[in-house]
Amino acid sequence: MCGIIGVTGVAEPLAVLLAGLRALEYRGYDSAGVALVETGGSELWRLRAAERGRSIDKLASEVVAAPLDVGAAIGHTRWATHGAPTEENAHPHLDCSGRVAVVHNGIIENHRELAAQLAAAGHRFSSATDTEVVAHLVEEERGAGAPLAEALRRCLPRLRGDFALALVDAGSPETIVAARRTAPLVVGRSDTGAVVASDIAAALATTRNLFLLDEDQVAELTPGAIRLIDAAGAECSPRPLAVSWDVAAAQKDGHPDFMAKEMAEQPLALRETLLGRLEASGATELEELGLDGPVLKAFRRVVLVACGSSYHACLSGRNALESLAGVAAEVDIASEFRYRDAVLGPDTLVVAVSQSGETLDTLHAQREAKRRGATTLALSNVVDSVMAREADAVLYTRAGPEIGVASTKCHLAQRAMLGVLALHVARARGALSDDATRRHAADLLGLPDAVSDVLARAEDHAAVAARHAAVRDVYFLGRRDGFSVAAEGALKLKELAYVRAEAYPAAEMKHGPISLIEPGALVVAVATRSGLWEKVMANIAEMRARGATVVAVATDGDAETAAVADDVLLVPETGPLAAPIVEIVPLQRFAYEIARARGNDVDRPRNLAKVVTVE
Ligand code: F6R
User: Fold this and answer.
1) Nearest CA, atom 3, ligand 1
2) What's the pTM value of the predicted model, to 2 decimals?
3) Domains observed in the chain
4) pLDDT (tens digit, 9 = 90+) per residue, 295-351?
5) Which positions are catalytic?
6) Strand order in 100-108's β-sheet?
7) Rounded to an integer, what distance in angstroms lies between the CA atom of residue 96 and that of residue 100?
8) Which pLDDT tens digit goes with each residue over 572-612?
9) Which residues line ligand 1 (CB under 6 A)?
10) How far apart are the CA of 246 and the centre of ligand 1, in A?
11) Residue 362 alpha carbon, nearest atom of ligand 1
C-alpha cells in the first residue's frame, strides 16, 4: 500500500511530483523516491530517501541536482511490505542497465519464483522488494525489441498478485506506461501533459480530465495524450471519471493536522451523506442502489463484512437492520469471512463496508460472497473504487477525502448511511409504522446538529483526556450499540496514542477479563441513557468495586451516572440510531488529545497506512 504519481509534459515536473507525493503520503511514509528521464540526454536520474515521515522533505532538499530538461517523471511513497524500509528498498527500482525505472503499489505474489528465473538468466538484483522483478522483466522484453507499453503488456500475465505500476525508460524520454490489477490507479491528460496517480487528489493538480484503467489494460502516457491497450494488445478507449473533489478539499484548512480538520468536518460529512436520501417523513430515496423494493424484500439475510473502524460501523448497522427491518443480519471481519466457507446464496445480501473501497481483505470477502452466489453491495466513500465497481450495487458516503490515517468523518458517515439503509429496507419490507419511521428519520436528520454540539464541547472533553494522559491500560465497555462505540474508542486510543486498550461487551468482563481490574485500571464506559443504561450502571459498579477509575460517556443532565464516574464525557440525548454516532465523537477527542500529549503524529500513526491493500 503505497502511493504512485507520474507526470509527463508538465511545467516544473519535479514540483508537481513532490506535491503529488505529499498528497499520497497517507498511503505510506516509510520512504519516497523519484525517477526522471532527461529529454535531451536520454539519461535516467533517480533520487530516494528513507527517513520515515521526512523522506519527501529530504527529496525536496536534494532535487537541485536533478537535470533541468525533464520529460517523463515518476514518484513513489512507500509502506514497506517486502524488504525493510531502507533506501535500497525505496522505489523507483531499476533494471540491470539502469534505464528502466518502476514504481509499484501492491504485492507481486510470485516474485521469488520470477526473481529466481531472472537471476538464472543473468539479472542482478539490488533490493529485497517484490517490485524489482518488474523492472527486469520489462528489460527482457525491451531487449527483445518491444516498445515500452508492449513490453509491460507482455509482462502482466507473468505477474500474480495485486498491483498498480508505472514505468519510465530512458529510451522513451517523454513516455510513462502504467497498469493495474485490483490496486487503484487513475490516468489523466491536459492539453500538453499527462498524469498517472494512485488517487484522484494527487492527479488533480495536473488535470481534472481523468480516466479509469481496467484491470490488465496498459496505458501509455505522452504529453497531451493517453493510449490504452487491453490484455490482448488491442487499442481501447479510456473510461472518463467524474471528479467532484477539488485540491483544496485535500488540504488542512488551518487545522493543526488532518485528523482535527476531519473531525471538524463531521457535521458536513453527515449532512452530505444524508442529503436527498432521507426526508422528515421517513421517505428514503436510494435509487442509486439499483435494488428495488421487491428485491430488498426477498432477502432473508444480510451479512455485513468490513475491517477495523468500518467493522465497528457494521456492528451498529446489524443492530439497526434487525430491529428496524426485522431481517436476519450478522457481521463478520472481512479477513475471517473470506476463509470461513460461509454458507451463502441468492437469498443473502452481503454488504461490504469500506471507506477506501480497496481494502484487500474486504475486497476479497466481497468477491468470495459474489462467487458463492450472494448479491453484493459495496458501501464506499471513494467513487468508482475497486469494490464499488465490482459490487452488484453501490452506496456512497459523501464525506470527501479522508487523509488522516485514523478514520473519523468517514466512519460517522458509514454509520449514518447504514442507518438510512436499515430504514430503507424496513420500508421496503413494511416492517415499521409511519410513526416509528418518522421518529428514526428525525433522529438521523438531527445528526449534523447533534455532532456539532458535541464538537463544541471539545475543551471539556480534552480536559478529561488531559487528566488521563499518562494511562497505560484502558478497558472500554458498552452494550449493544454502546459496545460498537466502545470498540471504536479503544481502536482510536490504540492506534493514535499507542495505549493498550481493550473493548468488551460490558457484561462479558465477569467471564474472565475482570481479573485484570485492580486499583489504577481505567474503565471508559458508554453509559448514555439511549442504551441499556441500567445494565451498564451495574457493570460500572462491578468495576468500581475492584478499584477501577471510571470515565463515563453520559447523557446531558444525568446526575446519577456522573455520581458513579470519576469523569464524564457528556453528549446530548438523541434517538437510538444517532446515539452511537454522537457518542463516538468524545472518544475520538479522548484518543486525539492523549496522542498529542504524548507527542505522537496523529495523522500518521506508526506502523499504519491509510489503505490496507495487503492481506
Ligand atoms: C482505523 C481505521 C481502519 C480502517 C480499516 C478499514 O481508524 O481507519 O481500521 O477502518 O483499515 O478501512 P476501509 O474502511 O478503507 O476498508
Assistant:
1) 308
2) 0.78
3) 3-249 (3.60.20.10), 251-445 (3.40.50.10490), 460-607 (3.40.50.10490)
4) 999 999 999 999 999 999 999 999 999 999 999 999 999 999 999 999 999 999 999
5) 2, 610
6) 93-94, 100-108, 161-169, 176-181, 218-222, 225-229, 235-236
7) 8
8) 999 999 999 999 999 999 999 999 999 999 999 988 888 78
9) 307-310, 354-356, 359, 362, 406-407, 491, 495, 612
10) 23
11) 16
